[in-house]
Amino acid sequence: MVLRVEVLGAAGGETPEEAMTSFTLGESLALDAGGLTRSLHLEAQLALDAVLVTHAHLDHVRDLATLADTRAQRRAKPLTVYGLAVTLRALAHHLFNGQLWPDFTRLPSPRKPALRFVEVRPGEVFRSGGLSLSCFPVHHSIDTVGVVARSRGRAVLFSGDTGPTDRLWTVAQDLGRDLRAVFVECSFPRRLARLAEISGHLSPDTLAGELAKLGPAVGRIPIFTYHMKPGFSSEIEAEVHDLLDGVVLARPGLVVRAT
Ligand SMILES: [Zn+2]
Ligand SMILES: [Zn+2]
Asked: Relative to the alpha carbon of 186, which ligand is closest?
């Protein structure tokens, strides 16, 4: 199938104008769950088979809570949540723990729960939604992965939340001409570069340093920034525009087809 990425949320926080990080990769698979139920109509929420979460931070998992609740009420088939073991443990212990929110890995019934947790290991290739997927570690304040989604020899790369990292770009190099688009985070404007550094994020200058590692693919393929913290998008956009030709801020509604 054609690899189709739709941006539901491209922010690292939420306001009425900015939704938290979430993408759909086709109709049955989502990547991160910061803004899923906020953005998807009920039918689309029920049509999902799986969500791959890059890490446990709330701006990437929050809507698993509301999605699980709604699907439990509708007796939908179990939604597979793919993540690192440490991420799934955090979700089980801190979110779906019967206190902060019900344990939807056992509800509405242990035989047909709303959620099913499936561990993924870095480097392992697995299939969901007609796509081949793999993860690799990046550099954030907790264990976090970047993601490669592939179909028919075409690939899209997502950085996950990360500060400067080499792994992302060796993965990009290895994809060669299969690589059709890159989504890379840029959370803070230049004046908050120090905050970006200590929290494991990028700002325009470190983003420029990262994209230099991508080499000749810059200019050949579309590059989108995401995970802008609320209220900083225009500032980041102006700074990125000055430094990097052709890099565009991702916004909700943006659709990228890997053709
Ligand atoms: Zn985040
Ligand atoms: Zn994070």
From this structure: 1
For CA atoms 163, 167, 170, 172, the dihedral sign is negative
Of the ligands numbered here, which is closest to the C-alpha atom of 143?
Answer: 2
Q: List, for residues 7-55, the tens digit of each pLDDT value.
A: 999 999 999 999 999 999 999 999 999 999 999 999 999 999 999 999 9
Query: Which pTM value belongs to this model?
Result: 0.97
Ligand closest to CA 55? 2
Q: Which residues, listed in sequence order, are joined to residue 52 by a DSSP beta bridge?
A: 31, 82
Asked if 172 contacts 158 with a C-beta cutoff of 8 angstroms, the reply is no
| CATH of region 3-258, choose from 3.90.400.10, 3.40.50.620, 3.60.15.10, 3.30.43.10 | 3.60.15.10
Ligand lying closest to the C-alpha of residue 9? 1
The alpha carbon of 160 and the centre of ligand 2 are apart by a number of angstroms equal to 8
State in Å: Cα 94 to ligand 1 middle. 17
